[in-house]
């Protein structure tokens, strides 16, 4: 049985040891990483998986399948299956939210209604935690300026400016986001100014974020912004909102940012879910920019990382970025990077009906792939995307479950019906039509799924016989979807761990006068991408 060995990443050598352990363990399971679940039936993806595992999990309840990505096993499972799942758990970073209040000088305050306006619960939770952390780190390194990379609508930037009185440059590629940030910041400024007048309190100046519309494609561009002196401007709405060209980074600094210098020119680079390569660009800019004394990066969208230039020593791809991982010759490809976005916490938060429905949607999409393969093969050359079709089907599924429960009623003892196996639950739902003519069966939902998908691809519908033939061919393997997808999703936390350790190692390889760590700063159920990379340059 796998030992509960906790790896550490306090030094470059420890981090590299952990990375090699991951690489060595996942090598025999490459078929999971490279699989594209839409090809489940077409490529018979279940065949490489240990048959004993699949037979065992086919008898498990949906609830037990949903806990597999979290590393939870059952005593009666085969030893090799338990070994696989428990080893994956031991190789994964812990995502349990750290108690940030334990950090000296750290205080997470609830946002005022005016600052929280427009934020959903998830965003409010993220901004409250990250803004407090950025403020603490800025204080530790003696910086008064923050560059918010991938600022979006400026939620983080505005909290840092108004609540923590930091000078903030908010960078985003979308000019519309910049306009929203400016308008929102002005409303907040006026609100606080009016409140002070009403309370007859002493008028104070407010720091307003400076917005920069810029597609940050390289660390050179970000470094040009960061290296420019920024004045701590409290002049109300006299903030900056200008477009910039990535082709002239040196001119960028002159045109966009204030020219007057002030004594404190150090800064912190921060990013809340900076997408794809942008999170890596932030780290490189931090290493290359003298004035950047700290970086706090929370990444996301690993599927959008670039990794085409692994054989080029000084490449600026998004993965791998460290010399240690480059030397190991690791490539993930998009399917494996997609897998890194899976959230074990979200999986185990699903109830059985929601989990069953997700498995059913995967089955429909995989069967629809055979429809395309057989009847529209040319469209597959374009890697078609049909979007998310689950909402309408989920409503119909809920209605179907309700009707099924009304038909079956409670058990003879009066208690709710207990969990049943994935196969039994699936079969009971599929047979509901024979028990109640009004119930919508799986086949009719599959036909609707196909017709919706074909419509999105602007393709003509098929005769019913074409759908029914593929349905009959695929249906007998539907019960394999849940076990397969659960096993594959168990690799997700390890894939994310590999990507994050690669980034951490990049920092650890750079200089001994640098502190770098990984910290889970959000509730992983609310915000699955909750790992922050925090690095500070140590003053000599």
From TrEMBL:
Record-linked SUPFAM superfamilies: S-adenosyl-L-methionine-dependent methyltransferases
Pfam families xref list: Methyltransf_32 (PF13679)
Methyltransferase domain sequence ranges: 122-307
Protein's recorded name: Methyltransferase domain-containing protein
